[in-house]
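Can you give me the bound-state structure? Components:
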Amino acid sequence: MRNYVLRRLLALLPTLFFASLIVFFTVRLIPGDVIDLMLSQNDVSADKMSRDQVIRALGLDVPIWEQYLRWVGSIVFKGDLGKSLWHSTPVTEYLAQRLPVTLELGLIAMIVGLLIAVPIGVYSAMRQDTKGDYIARSFSILLLAVPSFWLGTMVMVFPSIWWGWSPAIEYIKFTEDPWQNFKQMIVPGVVLGAALSAITMRLTRTMMLEVLRQDYIRTAWAKGLSEPLVVLRHGLRNALIPVVTLVGLQAPLLIGGAVIIEQIFVIPGMGLLLLDAVNQRDYPVITGVFLVVGVAVMLINLLVDLSYGLLDPKVRFR
Amino acid sequence: MTTPLLQVRGLTTRFRTERGTVKAVDNVSFDVAPGETLAIVGESGSGKSVTALSLLRLIPNPPGVIESGEILFEGKDLTKISDAEMRAIRGNRIAMIFQEPMSSLNPVLTVGMQIAEPINVHRGTPWSKAMEAAKALLEKVRIPDAAKRLDTFPHQYSGGMRQRAMIAMALACKPRLIIADEPTTALDVTVQAQILDLLKELTRETQASLILITHDLGVVARYADQVAVMYGGRIVEQAAARDLYKNPRHPYTRGLLSSVPRLDGDTSKRLVPIEGQPPDLSRLPAGCSFAPRCKQASSECLKQQPALRERAPNHLSACILDAIQ
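Here's the bound-state model for the whole set.
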């Protein structure tokens, strides 16, 4: 088991290397130039002199491959992701603030998504082709069809008209007041989770139907077990194995969704950070965010693979 | 004669298919006395497995439904009792052993837990106690190192061991009736006899009755007291095992017997197969369903379905030629 994890972690290195290449160079392909933006915003007359000065000060004067090597070098040797071009704040400092917020949002969304998807999916499979099944399936298609930015906007607009409720604008940290923080995060979490639950529900239903046809389910009935025992004890665990894979694969979607949701609900997470950085062409911040997200996605997939061992006794890690 | 443990009367099970409804089991009646072993013999598609599943109301519905008939067991008609009452009988008073030990055990639960489960469910025995009982059961079905085996998973068992575990599971609540649906078909020949001997020995020990579903007449000779031969969803011959071997009355039974090698008889005799295919249940002929394959069939056979009648003491057969003889 330990060897397996170590080997998997080592295998991440080449992936990370290619990810760093892609991230570093594609960011610089975004049209628009950080220097122009800075000069125009600071109202500095854009003569050649001051322009060259800014470029040199930001270290953008050296050839691009040298910039890359410097960037990678400082990550590898100093654990330093560089500094924001605008505020000269270290990128790692930003990430330390923002990453937990997005992780919390993602975790809530994932839990909410599973809490919606798994019970409905199981019910739908148990009552295949009944009215309840059709309603459940229509509901999941509806969730899939509704974009989360629309749902997010509706959640902002209508409760404030009807009940005068609106989500708090000022973000309260989890460490300051966990309950306030949770109340703030749950609505965006549900909006984000709802979108993800649709596919999970359909897969749960399909897998459950498949499992319920198996011989060992007939054995369970023949033992005189009640329907809940047959379905939950004997069926669900077998059906969940592919569902866990899907949830793992949804991790990148979760982060993509977070960009939009954080914008709507003004949550200071990675998504908002990334959006601001892209608007400002703040290259080190963008690359830093991408790299951390990439590592997170890879680690989540590793966790998913490890969780098979819990669900399926046939899985042995060597 | 003692009162039978199980009385099946006119059991008819239908399946709805794309080509209309099919009577997989058609007007089947038989008795099982306490401690007796009844073998139900037939080719695949003869309705023997559907009969077994119907007894426990395990026919998937839809598409299957028990259309008519009575299944009297311990004073109750199993076709009429509630689902909850049925659940209290399944795995408790009547247990079932299936054909595929490979896929009939749940891959994600330990074998011990699966054996202990019926004890926990039907008797309310706490898990720790039920697991001890499971260990004793594993020893009873002669699985070596039972204590260790309790916490392992089905994929760590061989086919024969899994079927032993299935038997242990079936015996868990000391059922009065065990239904074994081709329990050895999926196993190695060398293991088959061991499993059947074990099953026979344990049912004898607990005084349980056994319904043994099989297509293997060799098995029948060795283990059964009574035999019912099924063809096209109906019982075509029914007799005591010894009687059936000595005096098979129905041409189908005779065909079956002459297609099986016999070590006690003339081994130089060629085996005679039954020509043709088992009938398509959705297109059964108007008369005797075996007539198209029967060498003795006459035009009379195609006219009407022959009734299952007692042609000799305690020997039932469904062939009009039998009446003429």
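A couple of observations. Chain B touches chain A through 27 residues (CB under 8 Å). Chain B has one domain: 6-105+157-264+272-324.
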